[in-house]
Amino acid sequence: MVFRAAIVTSWVLAADDTSDVPSNHPLLSDEYAIEKWEDITGQATNNLPPIPNEYTVLAELDEDVLAAVDNDSDYDVLWSMEL
Amino acid sequence: MGTLVSVCVSPCLSGVDTLDYIFRDDFTTADSAPLGTPRAADPGPGSWTVVETDGQLSIASGAVTFPAQSSPAWGDQGIVSGAITRASGVVLVVAVNVTTWEEFGVGWHTAAAIVDPDSAQHALQLNTTNGQIDDDAGTALHAGLSTGAGYKLAIVLRAAGAHYLVHDGTEWLLDSITATGSTATLYAMLSNLDGVVVCDYAHVPDALWTPIPVASDSFNRANSSTLGSTDGAGAEESGGSGLAWTEIVGDPEIISNAFTTNGGGNDAATVDTGESDVLVQFDSDDRNLSIVLRGNSTSDDYWICNIDSGGNTQIREYLSGTATTRASGAPGIASGAMTLLAVADDDDITFFVDGGNRLTYGLASAYKTATCHGIRLGSSVPSVNNFSVWPRKPSTPSWM
pLDDT digits over B116-173, tens only? Predict the structure, then answer.
């Protein structure tokens, strides 16, 4: 089952991103297999990272991944619903 | 194309401003259920085949009502016109007011039969999600509509493919463009499953109209280390020529009638279209490239809709050359030829690959008035053809 969830995550800054295409992005997408996510906070790019370093993404993810994120103290699952 | 009937378009002047129709039903004359079949369009020309296997249609107050089926099955309720010949610019316009937002569709079918709109050649269909309209591939094109309000749906035929538009009560919005489907004989179809929908009219005017690109480039010109200007031939519809390409990253070139490069990739260029709310579309021979949106040609501030080398998608904002990923999807699109389409409308950016794999970002307020759009190549250097930029809010004729 796939769920949609609003999840609070921190930013990984482009300067710390070792991928081929460095970008500011959520830590959540580095640590979990997320099918799709969208930033729903909209923090201005020139004010990254915010203090505290957290923002909310709307994610689509499998049930077991959601359960793992929910049990990870690095993240807060604000709500979720089955799609 | 069939019998033509002329009617006046206000103001009606003798001998001018008349509009002919290929098909027209205003559902003016009240009629109780069932309507029966065949049924002459009112005032015409044209006639419907009416299917009322489950749920009977009725006409009152100048509109036909499609009731919900009791045991919903596609094909058991709807109306379909006689044959209409495909031509670029033939438009089906249908005015609806939805009472129950469930599955109901309008489109062009390849036979005189009622089917699931997903099986039609070109269709717009109400999704079970309130206020959402999908295309015939089941891809969400439009959201935020509501019951109890009047909307218009239009599907404009191309020689191959169609333009999909929705009038949201305020203005016409171009939602998508396709280039597949070229059946010569088509039938206007309204098919209902479990929606409750009131339809004010269904028109196919004889007048032709298509959106016109504000920029378009086929890249069919001699190899050159500079891109030159758009040739206006990147789409079936002519337009958008003579705009100078500005290289913003690297050194894109014209090679073998395509936008590509001899270098290591990561090259980008844009054209200034004068429009910020647009649809940008092009064909690529592979993954690992981006649509560039809302740049300004003088700084490294812009948006991209990217498909990476792994077939995953991202919407990214660039500020002074630094990327921020605002949305990401992992559809795992296979390598090979593909069509990319991005829709930029105020704070919303929507990205499609091959008419699906939809990715959205709804807080794209940065640079939202910038008018330069283009192409960015990844390191594997795919090549691009058929670049076109379309106004999100095209100027439409009065009869739409």
Answer: 999 999 999 999 888 999 999 999 999 999 999 999 999 999 999 999 999 999 999 9
pLDDT of residue B17: 53
**Could you tell me the CATH number of the domain that includes residue B377?**
2.60.120.560
- B360 to chain A, any CB pair closer than 8 A? The answer is yes
**B323: chain A residues, CB-CB within 8 Å:** 14, 21-24
What residue numbers bound the domain in which B45 lies? 5-205
Question: What ipTM is given for this predicted complex?
Answer: 0.97
Are residue B336 and residue B383 in the same domain, yes or no? yes
Q: Which of B205, B225, B248 is the last residue of a domain?
A: B205
Coil, strand or helix: which one is A63?
Answer: helix
- Closest-CA residue of A relative to B330 is A35
Domain coordinates in residue numbering, chain A = 2-82
Residue B139 lies in a domain: yes
DSSP state of A24: B
User: For the whole model, what pTM was predicted?
Assistant: 0.93
The reply to whether residue B365 touches residue A34, judged by beta carbons under 8 angstroms, is: no
CATH for B177? 2.60.120.200
Q: Which of B324, B376, B379 to mutate to test the interface with A (most CBs of A within 10 A)?
A: B324
Tell me the pLDDT tens digit for each residue of B99-112: 999 999 999 999 99
Distance CA B191, CA B114 (A): 6
Q: Which residues fall within 8 angstroms of residue B84, CB to CB, at 6 or more apart?
A: B1, B2, B22, B23, B90, B185, B186, B187, B188, B204
Q: Is B379 on the interface with A (CB under 8 A)?
A: yes
Q: Which residue type occupies B70?
A: S
CB contact under 8 A, B330 and A35: yes
Residue window 11-70, chain A: list those with CB within 8 Å of chain B.
Answer: 14, 20-25, 29, 33-42, 44-46, 48
Are the beta carbons of A23 and B316 separated by less than 8 Å?
A: yes
Contact B138, B354 (CB under 8 A): no
How many folded domains does chain B comprise? 2
Q: Which residues of chain B have pLDDT under 70?
A: 1-17
